[in-house]
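debug: dumping io for the single-chain case to check the tokenizer round-trip. Nothing else runs in this session.
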Amino acid sequence: MGGAPPPPAALSAGAEEFGKLTPQIARMRNDRAAVVRIVERLPKSERKLLPEIIPTVDALINRAAELGRTLQAMEGDVDTTALDRLDQRIAALGREVATPEQDRRLDLLQRQRQTLAQLVDRRAQVEAQFESCVLAVQNVRFDLLRLRSAGVAAVLEDLTSATQQARALSLDVEAAISAAGEIRAALGKDTGH
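debug: decoded output
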């Protein structure tokens, strides 16, 4: 690959690490390879205008991998059907004659439901951030494909915009990774990532 940096280690991980997200990771692997090929084929003068493309793609891939690991670790732990079951138990307890013991159980169930609802919401946020990383890498690839046919001057503004958006996304993803750490802690998991 010439002078291109090696692919992020995240791209060498297998299905056991990413589970159902493995196809998206594979798509990112292909998109990165295409980005590297396109950048390497550019004349040196044009390549100098795009020095941040590959590092930006790699940063997005690394962030997506972290989010993917978190989502895989959460698989099965955050069960949306559990919310329905808790709602049913809360409703059933609410229909019974109130006693101090039932009030205590009802309070515990309501707190458990609130915590689970927050975890489900955070999982949805982490999933959205993961998908945004995948799409950002694809957008960089598509902008580079346009560059091949239209020339650097015609596409440079779009690529610069895509790179800036990818950087902004990286900041958002940092926040999502922090939230994912809180989720792991709440679930009692410490995956070491």
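debug: round-trip ok. Residues 189-193 have pLDDT under 50 and may be disordered.
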